[in-house]
Amino acid sequence: xxxxxxxxxxxxxxxxxxxxxxxxxxxxxxxxxxxxxxxxxxxxxxxxxxxxxxxxxxxxxxxxxxxxxxxxxxxxxxxxxxxxxxxxxxxxxxxxxxxxxxxxxxxxxxxxxxxxxxxxxxxxxxxxxxxxxxxxxxxxxxxxxxxxxxxxxxxxxxxxxxxxxxxxxxxxxxxxxxxxxxxxxxxxxxxxxxxxxxxxxxxxxxxxxxxxxxxxxxxxxxxxxxxxxxxxxxxxxxxxxxxxxxxxxxxxxxxxxxxxxxxxxxxxxxxxxxxxxxxxxxxxxxxxxxxxxxxxxxxxxxxxxxxxxxxxxxxxxxxxxxxxxxxxxxxxxxxxxxxxxxxxxxxxxxxxxxxxxxxxxxxxxxxxxxxxxxxxxxxxxxxxxxxxxxxxxxxxxxxxxxxxxxxxxxxxxxxxxxxxxxxxxxxxxxxxxxxxxxxxxxxxxxxxxxxxxxxxxxxxxxxxxxxxxxxxxxxxxxxxxxxxxxxxxxxxxxxxxxxxxxxxxxxxxxxxxxxxxxxxxxxxxxxxxxxxxxxxxxxxxxxxxxxxxxxxxxxxxxxxxxxxxxxxxxxxxxxxxxxxxxxxxxxxxxxxxxxxxxxxxxxxxxxxxxxxxxxxxxxxxxxxxxxxxxxxxxxxxxxxxxxxxxxxxxxxxxxxxxxxxxxxxxxxxxxxxxxxxxxxxxxxxxxxxxxxxxxxxxxxxxxxxxxxxxxxxxxxxxxxxxxxxxxxxxxxxxxxxxxxxxxxxxxxxxxxxxxxxxxxxxxxxxxxxxxxxxxxxxxxxxxxxxxxxxxxxxx
Length: 795
Prior knowledge:
disordered C terminus, four-stranded parallel beta sheet, alpha+beta, nine-stranded mixed beta sheet, disordered N terminus, 795 residues
């Protein structure tokens, strides 16, 4: 079926389909008044200007690294934004806000009741089976509603508009609602495409909503020097970008379950400075996975003891564990009765018509489902892996004893919005996700939201992973509305502050990223040298066998396999490790590692005879040099950079010592040439010395010269300087074990003569590098690092 296209003009267009409400056009085909400035602007642009504007918006999203992770293959996808934005008239938005606030109050009181007095069940407003058999009802926290504290503080409501023009609720998102960060990025990108139009319409800003929410959580935290944490499932989650983006935007700690530890009844963050308290966590992790001790025992991303800290009142989660109970589809069948009992009035924004098939008399309804109705789960899916229920299984359950697990829904056709397809506006079904945050004075509504336009006119594929596209939502504001920003006002003065304590996990990943990137470079250097020797047609020498053995130790070329397989594994390891901390360095550095992974993947798909291996090695080594430059020039020189520097220097120290030791042990022709090649010192040697290679001069320049950035002496000196700046290392105090070991290594290399540098000497240097790495890991990355905060617990 061909797509319906809409001409870009401010007057009349073809009448919209009768079965759907059209957001842009009235029933007579005329453009609605609040859409006219947008359509007039679009009509005034040439196709080239329009594409230039849209390209600028997409370029921003690409440079900012906005992505989502596909649930099907786990791969990253660029964020699929569509234009133009959805426009909602100001007066209509005010009515919608009132209905959303009322619904939020109802949801808050309902959750408090279900985790408290359970009056809704006792008085017959809600069947007890829908609570007792609900996997989202967490029995370890069954009485948390009696504390008097709100259990939900940040929620989302998915809305659709029916053919009659009335909004209805598709679903409530209270577990860990996503999309608010993407809404922010959508707004920035859309403002790049429509800057003049956004100003003339006085589009309401989003920053004030987030600023008030941040103030609420900071006041709830109330701990001097402690920051609010954002708890993420980790980088494999499909919306991890949003988690890291919101943490940066709001100034929160980005934390995974492994970053936290519970001591007594208090939750603390494992940092390189020791354990630091945390009182408030904005949770983006499903509740069951939060604590393997009392909830889902197979969780590997939670924190043991977290429920204990919550019960003790020492930790506040936003939203509370168990708040996913409100997402139960069957609750919609009883919501108006519960609303009258809880808030004294019916809901202005009601859910789509829902019938629970567990009610008496519903069996006949299930056997002859009326047109327009469909079946769905009555309860949320249980935690853990498992195949989704098929339509056939639902139908079987609905007609048998399992009908209590099924609901029937009748959802009106969604309204449509215009979005650009292949150079034309196409009509696409749309849903709107609106976010609400609870403040001290009640519920605040984000002025706009996160709209999703379907992949085709049927509206079956709305999810981003299924091909749906994201659209910004504009609400017209007042002309005198003051701009709001989360940045400090220049008039308020400014005081530079150092970043807070670095979580141990982030430090560990930065340290190992330095090691893995250096390991990748070492492997490619050995491989390039082997290629050049083979292309020169020279007879194999003992040093060539030593180089091949070094590659085998690195996992490259094992068993005669094509070396590109092992090299790709090293590239992928560096890339995946960087993905865990991509918020810690620039998008440019991230893209370099992504390019290396892509280049090696492309090379592996080619047969060896069709591949230019020397060119490939040169391309990768050039990109690695670029990555090192970006890290050195662009990365903020504080704790994280120092751990990365330690990892890089230790890996280069040990790898250089091992390579030099292997070459010298092999003996024969080409030893010193190979050493100069590996340390990238050939040109320097020829400028300083004669063309003839001498053992003493080569060893001194390549290994002992403190001014050569590839020498062992240089690595030891740089390592000693980085260690001195790590947390807990103060001038004048006794050296920690890693610093003491490094100082001894530094003295040994500074005082060594070329004649003393033997394979045994080099093996000892390499061993020192690995042992210093172990000492660093024990001190900073272990489960319970030493620190003042931890020591105070035992005093």
